[in-house]
Amino acid sequence: RVVSVFQQLAAEVIKFLVKIEETEKRLFEKKKFVLETDYLVPMQHVPEPFWSEILANEAQLAEWRAWGMLKADGNANAAFLRENLTLSLHTRHFDRDFTRRLLEALPFNDLDAATDGLLVHSENWQALNLLGERYREQVKTIYIDPPYNTGGDDFLYRDSYQHSSWLSMIYDRLTLGREWMREDGVLFVSCDENEQPRGRLCGDAVFGEENYVTDVIWNARKSVSSDTLISLAHHHTLFWAKRKSVVDTNKHTFRLPAEKAKFSNQDNDPRGPWTLDPFDAPNIRPNLTYEIVNPNTGERYMPPPGRCWRVPKEEFERLLAEGRILFGKTGTGKPMLKRYWSEAKEKGKAPTTLWADLPTTTDGTKLLQSMFPIEMKAYLDDVKPKPPGLIERIARLSSVDAQEPVLDFFAGSGTTGHAVINLNREDGGRRKFILVEMSEYFDTVLLPRIAKVMYSPEWKDGQPKRRATPEEAERTPRLVKIIRLESYEDTLHNLAAAAERLHGGERERALREMVGEETYLLRYWLELPLANAETLLKGLDLTRPFAGYLEILTDEGPRYKPLDLVETLNYLYGLRVRRYETWYSSGDGDRLYQVVKATDREEKRRVLVLWRDMADYDPEKERAFLEGKFDEMQAAGETWDEIWINGDSPTPGVSSLDPLFKRLMMGEAA
Questions:
Q1: Of 91, 130, 18, 90, which Cα lies nearest the Cα of 487?
Q2: What is the average per-residue pLDDT within 36-51?
Q3: Using the 8-state DSSP alphabet, how is residue 636 labeled?
Q4: Distance between CA 175 and CA 206 in Å, rounded?
Q5: Domain 34-39+118-242+363-485: CATH class, spelled out
Q6: Domain boundaries, the chain
Q7: pTM of this structure
Q8: DSSP secondary structure letters along 181-243
Q9: In sequence order, what are the residues at sequence separation of 6 or more whose Cβ sits closer than 8 angstroms to the Cβ of residue 461?
């Protein structure tokens, strides 16, 4: 009997623990809210009517001074802004109304296309999860430099489970990252000797062994260490393709620039500088297998074993007559083919697996330190950044039309963004960068670094050595968007007990005293089992889309952050935002409508999203107002495949976004 009772109790405990685990999983996988959305906007794109507000903003001026863009004792005026067109306005220092007006006034017909960089402050799995619908199958290149798991990283386990912890973390993120990749997408993963074997197995598990390309060896260190038996001088860069067969069909684009220094013209050939290439080629083909006689020595040559000549015999005779076949540099060797600089510069050269000609980690550290004040030198010593040159090579190789996004979800100090900006300035491309970072580096290093590179290509001791040239300014990112996401810990922190949901709580009363009576604090409703989105998000009031706050945990204690539901839905639904607009309904108490004009991710459907506060809402007045607006847009040639609005609306053709929003937040199908 005792055993029977124990078994029954154990079964109930197990059921309860299963419910808890399932609930934790759903809370973790719940899409996270966007809490802040800001932009870096170079002054060359900011309309002059905004300049007086900018110059009056002490927080903005202080940031420019701190970032070395304005002298410590200097004051800014209109002439200063006009002379520093790559100086970036940071909308974080301005209120929502200013940012809204600025975005609507920018000289871009397509905000999504003009956003050349996206910085995401978030744990990377959560960022990949929220933004996945927008960027699914859009990214050409992923480069990541994950923690090397050498004992200095913040992994919970330091024992024999540490490798499995690292592998699990990498596997989950590679799986999500793969969904972002185009069919011809490529992934590069930096790692050292410690995790290279396991990293290879992990990548093969996600991409398939057949899609593994190679292991590129980068000479990361020139100095020799006497602390180890053999001084390690290299890092690994593991390389996979999403579909290697697709990448192979375009391998002619996967080329580095040819090196002109290796071409010369010893015989004054009128066709210009040349170099010698072997005349043999892989495989055995009967029509490419024949005897060649050296006319200088009479020696006879056949292709090496397992190989053939490059061209048929008739073509060889023509090349010989044209002086393109040489028999070694002295005329006494085997046949070789002249390759001219005029040909090579167009075709480039195939990369090898040994990259010993690039800057080192030490070079990367020195470059980063040059961009910040000397007082930060010791702090930056611990960052150990890759040099931009390494990632420039990767982005150059993988670019087809120099327009593709480059994703880095272990962004660290922001080297990938720096590299993309450098490369675009060099070749005039419009590659975009998406950087995800959760640590303090986001605000102390990554964000200021991107703003600094946008301002000037060269720095010393935290001060710019020169302004960007007109060409560099033209090729500078037009907009860099910055979003900050709710964390899993924030979700747990905001779970509300039943009594608190019924009677409110001290936190909500404190919020209203601080921010205003019209606001509310979002609390997640936890009921086991967690059946659907309606349960957890019952506390989300979509009739007041601009009034919701979340209590966020910070190093200084809890802080209240407003929910950005507009941007959250944009990413949940995968929208490409073309324009933002503001409408005012004068017949309905000057009700404000925030309007998002967008397309879906594939740019096949035109989507209009409307947001408004529904306090004292009059359905008939709204219908008359919206129908008038729709008529105006139709007369201007604007039509929509989908129109969404928060709450309900009697207007024909308009759907409530509320059920959609909540389903998407919980990862359920639209």
A1: 130
A2: 98
A3: T
A4: 6
A5: alpha beta
A6: 2-30+487-563, 34-39+118-242+363-485, 260-347, 566-665
A7: 0.88
A8: EEEEEEEEEEE-TTTHHHHHHHHHHHH-GGGEEEEEEEE---S--SSSSS---EEEEEEEESS
A9: 370, 373, 374
